[in-house]
Amino acid sequence: MNLFNTEHNPATSNLSERCRELHVIMRILAELTTPDKVVLKILQTICENLELALGEYWIVDNKNNVLRNEEVWYKPSVNIPEYKKITSQIVFSPGVGLPGIVYTAKKPVWIQDIVHNTHFYHTKVATQEGFQGALGIPAIHEDNVMGVFVFLSYTSQPFNNDILMLLASTGRFIGLFITRRQAENVLHQKYKDLELKIKRRTSALIQANRRLQLKIAEHKQTENALKRRIDFEKTVASISTKFLITSDFNKAVFKALTDAGQLSNASRTYLFQFYDNGSIMDNTHEWCNEGVIPEIYHRHNIPAAMRPWLMENLHAGNIIHIADVSQMPQEAAAEKEEFEKEGIKAFLILPIYAENELVGFIGFDNVVTTGPWREEDIARLRIMAEITGNAISHKKAEALITHMAYHDPLTNLPNRNLFQDRLQVAIVHAKRMGTIMALMAIDLDNFKTINDSLGHYTGDLLLLAVVEQLKKCVRESDTIARTGGDEFLIILPEITYPLNAAIVANKILDALSKPFFLESHEIYTTVSIGISLYPLDTNDISSLIKNADVAMYLSKEQGKNTYRFYNSDMNTHV
């Protein structure tokens, strides 16, 4: 049995190149393929690129602690009815069968001869179909195996350790995409749940309206009250629909405050949202009736600790209904003083929750006269507060997905997508202003040795520590992006002379010359830096990045822990 073929074979050179091409294809595939087709497309792409006959995807069933087959792809020329039937019926525990072994090992496994390998499953059927070799690749995100890809071949291809490591990297990228897809599915489910709630609420309102029509016919004396109730319910339904169909959250909130304020005869309606773990409250939206002075400009960044009585009631889930501000309790002295300063005579405040978390409140002020709000109005306004909370939750989920698409999950730095956007903006600005822009390519020296000897967890801690030092060496207007395992790119816009870039490079080398103390380890690391200048070296984005990389690799060749500016002679050397 030979799980890992480590022989250096000329055939592996072409295979290694195809694996690198495959890694690039996987990145493009994740961005262009719709989520419901992506697994089959991954199987097809890997099979066609590596000349494999069949691919399977085994999903992790955490509830039962087994792996189940979810997808199978094979070439049109392959006829495997019996094999496919067995695959759809079998499950594997961790450590059992090729899927289970890959799940436990958390790395690719290559079986060169499945006939004589005791770890392979249903060998008899597989060999009847003519299969000889098998390859397993885990899809991993943050050390969690999301699933296992298994591929079968009619030949025994050579896969050396370098190729398996490249396939492992591809598996980690696929795992990240699957995690992102799951997050998108959660967002989609939240959207469906919100839509269902609105449909149910609208259905309930329609039924209530029908009952009201009957009562109007029977009780003419209640006509005005019933008309008001209908108008209120229509407004709530309209608010629900507005949040559902519009992508402009701010516009939908203002429309909701306007409708609710006019219908409840309020002088002013407003939305406060909490930030910094609930320690800060901010008046983000406001509607004022005609002749009423806006207060939104004075209600920003208010410490929650300055409103203890208000916060205590909100956290308790209470509706705060004050018919006469002058009669507020003694414990609300701070709030009473503020309300009286703003000329408020009566108010109603409703807490807003998103995913069972207090995220803000909606307020209704009366600056004309004292007096209570109607109980039926309060009930309907509370529905509006619930709808607003659902909309805030939906907005936060969308913001999270957008952030994940443009930031590195470990360091939270811009990823390659966001880096490309910012580099384009920096070049356009430099061209318009006639200034110089520098691009630094940075690579940690000997990071693989540290990672292999101390483990990936310590390696990740080192990357985070290095990032903190890099941030201290650049301006807020500069951009640091993580574009690879230990690779970083830094955009330095608006520099006066190339010397300015050299100063930053020296600051980085000096900052990283000191040891890092991580998990009881004293770790020394250095970096190699390459610098390319726009427009002195090139006017082209891709050439600018390439030139910085060339200069960085020459820094490594010259002994590492140094920096080099790009010049055209370097291309000849490389």
TrEMBL record:
PANTHER family: DIGUANYLATE CYCLASE DGCT-RELATED, SLL0267 PROTEIN. SUPFAM superfamilies: GAF domain-like (SSF55781), Nucleotide cyclase (SSF55073). The lineage of its organism: Bacteria, Pseudomonadati, Planctomycetota, Candidatus Brocadiia, Candidatus Brocadiales. One of its GO terms (molecular function) is catalytic activity. Residues 435-568 form the GGDEF domain. SMART domains: GAF, GGDEF. InterPro entries: DGC-Regulatory_Protein, GAF, GAF-like_dom_sf, GGDEF_dom, Nucleotide_cyclase, Rev_trsase/Diguanyl_cyclase. This is Diguanylate cyclase/phosphodiesterase. It comes from the Bacteria.
